[in-house]
Amino acid sequence: MTPRTLKDLVPILEELNRNIKFARICKGDLHQRNDITQILTELRSLNIESIVIDSISLDSTGNILANTLRNTLAEIIARVEDIRRVNPKADYDDAPEAAFDKYESEVFESSMVQFLNKFMLYQDAIKLDESVKGFEERRLKELEEKGQTDLEPPLPPPSLYALPKGTTLSKIREIYLKEKKRFLTILQRSIDFEENIEENKRPKLRRVVDMCNKISKTISKYYPPCEIIIPKMPTEFEEERVKAAKSGIKVQPKKATGKATSAAPIPWEGDVFPMALTSELYEISKDFFHVESEAAFHSALNLHYKYDPITAKKGHHNRVAYMVQQLFNLLPAHQCKEWRDTFLDNVGVERAYYDSKSSNATSGDASKRSKRYVEELDTVLKNHRKRA
Question: Structural domain boundaries of the chain?
């Protein structure tokens, strides 16, 4: 059997990151809760230290994977901390039975009714199809007995009008099979959650953080330290540095690996906009920028300068200007102007253009895409204000 390496951890941790990313939206969602539990169970079943050791043979690829995974782990922890800031009780839901009952009475029941309706329609279509075939056979036999073969057939029996016009048995069968697969997925989720209901009672967010810290520390035992983009998180190197600083021992700082020079802009400290907001903004705004990743978008909005600069795409400056205007309104007076002017300069949108076009997306002659974006952005900001 081929030994597992850090490559095998990548899809698992990416899936965990996706679940945590939407945890605030889902809150106590049954699917999300159970998915996190299953991912944690899978991670606990792995010998992380053996995986890390077996990855050393990957050389430079192993180093890249180690650094990528440590940043993914840091991002997961940042999301969990963001959730806890908004809802300190997010990890203390000790009644998964209530969530299960709600799922059975709302989601499962409605899905079962929908499936049964499609099943009954499918059965009716089979009976009608058999009726049509029988009618046609009897009619042909009747014509043959009379020696007539060129007479126009009479209208079909009234029962055939029970199906919608243009609907065939083949089409109804296709709809039924699709609905059956969907229903079986929902049924399996119900079974999985019921079987893991005791496990789901345990605090999931705390366990996520503990697991991420454990994996990160194990990787750092065998690989050199790397820069954690967002945010700094405990690794063995970081813990040693903190301990050394407390004991008065001077530790040599890491050499800079970026392109920054003495003339480079000074990064802003902390997050101007929380990750929950920037994640949602990225989903609806990424097509307007030349941007390599969600992390780069988060860094750019917060003026962290951790990635290559993002720039606004040609033809989308008006939508970028509208986004900046709305984010400007979220910030306190002492930093909103500086943030706006700096961000516009970074993404390549002229201030004069911004002043003239920042409201263009809502004008009467705005394109359908701009109007749709305005609606999407308003929804994102409304959700953000509710969380604040």
Answer: 6-92+203-222, 96-195, 275-387
Residues 295, 315 contacting (CB under 8 angstroms) = no
pLDDT tens digits, 305-329: 887 789 999 889 889 999 999 999 8
Q: Please, is 280 exposed, middle or buried when counting C-beta atoms within 10 Å of its C-beta (0-12, 13-18, 19+)?
A: buried
pTM (2 decimals)? Answer: 0.46
